Amino acid sequence: MKCTLVTVATLLAMFAATVHAADETDALIALDKQWGESGVKGDPTVAAKLLADKVVSVAETGVRGKQGELSDMKPEPAGTRYEPTDYKVTFINPDTAIMTHGTKGADAHYSLHVWSRKGGTWQIIATSTTPAKNGK
Fold first, then answer.
1. Is the dihedral of CA 53, 59, 63, 68 positive or negative?
2. How many CB atoms are closer than 10 A to CB 67?
């Protein structure tokens, strides 16, 4: 009987953790999409909230911080869409996640973001992009 209770409790805890992670996965993907769409518009408002003050950003042009990321945001040509693909989110712990995804289009690339939650707010503490060959 005791063994059965322990097994049931363990399964319930695992199920609850999986449901919680799924909820956070969807929230992080939604935040990433907001960031990408604001980038297409050239509006740094969303990025300013999502990027941690000490973010490390790695791209083909080098390594930069938050101000470098924000200053590079320029509006894309009319009709440009942010088209992310293949999201994968792995939680290191309840407050740290690694996200990868690709994008399609003229600026096709692969991204890796490290998200950290402090005080209930998710922010990107590290990010890297790699251009995709042949527009993905």
1. negative
2. 12
